[in-house]
Design a protein that fits this description.
The protein is mainly β and about 425 residues long. It has helices at about 20-25, 285, 420-425; strands at about 5, 10-15, 30-35, 45, 50-55, 60-65, 70-75, 80-85, 90, 105, 110-115, 125-130, 135, 140-145, 155-165, 170-175, 180-185, 200, 205-215, 225-230, 240, 245-255, 270-275, 275-280, 295-300, 310-315, 320-330, 330-340, 340-345, 355-365, 365-370, 380, 390-395, 405-410. β7 and β8 (about 80-85) form a beta hairpin.
């Protein structure tokens, strides 16, 4: 199903394929933004002060220019996911693709540089070769911390691939309090070890992005340590090699936060990727918005259920006047705020990370409703309507960013019926 059909002038008009009945009643969207098409409606203003990476339609990691929108794809199925919106992050690991560099300490292992094609389709991935004999943690490591402040969450990620004779790889973060966070990964299957605390994302050509959340911990030192090495199996920390076995590694990242974001390449210094900002303002907003009654609908995927994640927010550039679709932890909610007071804050159900949903929220005086995934509408029958003048896509006036993809946004300039809300979100 699609929320819109792009046309050649960059604008988009269209219907939800499940709403033919609505169209007969004249209830077609006043605007329909289809980000699955891989293009941006000319009425949307998009900015990002840095370059940034994303998964392209061929499944490989690509780089978008400064102020260039990112249209992300599933790396395995190549299905379009939509407009990628992420918060600002910093990769704290320098030389993220240069494991031969002296900043990465080799332990009972050697490195062959540029040994195979990496997830970005360049020959830039290194081979990590354990030394002959039985060695503990044969691979590479370096000291690195998320922050000098105590208790700040962080997440390590790295792309790994099987070479020859190494089926299991171990990723570890040792925090400031001398506590270990461990991830064992089977490079034959992409499965995660039984006692691991992380996860794995599959990519083309048998690559896996291995993700390890951690906490810097409370301690007298500001030192932490990231380790990547070959091991003999799940739960093990040693490997018996003959000098010919190896695995491939590329794209190491350590960032402050509870979840991983898109890869940020580094060389001699840390690199910041600034936030993605997409808005509709002025007549690009007022031409289709109805101040007294309306319905917002969106298809979206969030990469995390941590914190508050905004899908869309119609506001006056403050949080005091706002109509927004968002997730709060695992709860999808439709929230209407007028004069700084929530008039409606309706929980539509439950969401999980990395899953695509369709959600809608409808409003008019003393009549609000929301639905997700074709579920029965949840209603609120008391409240006033805020005065708003812009639409923020994937973020809010309060700065709560989606960290995920917007597949589409549609707006109906009427309060659709509860049954219609179910139909357009099914």
């Amino acid at each position: 199903m699609s929320f819109g059909i792009p046309v050649r002038n960059g604008l988009a008009i269209g219907l939800l394929s499940s709403t033919s009945l609505l169209s007969k009643r004249g209830q077609t969207p006043a605007i329909s933004l289809n980000f699955l098409s891989g293009s941006l409606d000319s009425r949307v203003t998009f900015t990002r002060a840095t370059t940034a990476t994303f998964v392209g339609s061929n499944g490989f990691i690509q780089t978008a220019a400064i102020n260039g929108p990112r249209f992300d794809y599933n790396p395995v199925t190549l299905a379009a996911k939509g407009l990628l919106i992420e918060e600002q992050r910093v990769n704290l690991l320098t030389r993220s693709e240069e494991f031969d560099n002296a900043s990465w300490v080799k332990n009972s292992a050697t490195v062959t540089v540029n040994a195979t094609t990496a997830p970005n389709n360049t020959v830039s991935a290194d081979a990590i070769i354990p030394n002959s004999g039985t060695n503990t943690l044969p691979g590479f490591f370096r000291n690195a911390v998320v922050s000098a402040s105590d208790n700040e969450n962080g997440v390590v990620s790295i792309y790994l691939k099987k070479g020859v004779g190494v089926s299991w790889v171990f990723v570890r973060y040792l925090n400031k309090a001398n506590n270990f966070f461990n991830l064992w990964v089977n490079l034959d299957t992409g499965s995660v070890g039984a006692t691991s605390t992380g996860s794995v994302v599959a990519l083309p050509n048998d690559w896996y992005r291995c993700i390890l959340p951690n906490n810097t911990g409370v301690g007298s030192t500001t030192a932490g340590r990231v380790t990547v090495c070959a091991v003999s199996g799940d739960g093990q920390n040693s490997f018996t090699g003959d000098g010919t076995q190896f695995f491939y590694a590329w794209g190491a990242q350590l960032e402050a936060g509870a979840f991983a974001t898109s890869y940020i390449p580094t060389v001699a210094s840390t690199v910041t990727r600034t936030a993605d900002i997409a808005t509709m303002t002025g007549t690009n907003f007022s031409d289709w918005y109805n101040a007294s009654a309306g319905t917002f609908a969106s298809q979206f995927t969030t990469s995390t259920i941590s914190g508050t994640r905004t899908i869309l927010d119609a506001n006056d550039n403050t949080a005091n006047e706002s109509i927004r679709l968002r997730t709060v932890s695992a709860d999808p909610s439709f929230t209407v705020t007028d004069g700084g007071v929530d008039q409606a804050n309706i929980d539509a159900g439950t969401v999980v990370a990395n899953t695509t949903y369709k959600m809608a929220g409808a409003y008019t005086l003393n009549d609000f409703a929301t639905s997700i995934g074709g579920g029965a509408a949840v209603i609120d029958t008391s409240g006033t309507i805020p005065t708003v003048n812009q639409l923020q896509i994937g973020t809010s006036a309060a700065g709560n960013i989606l960290n995920g993809c917007i597949g589409s946004i549609s707006y109906y300039n009427t309060r659709l019926s509860n049954s219609s809300l179910q139909a357009i979100t099914a």
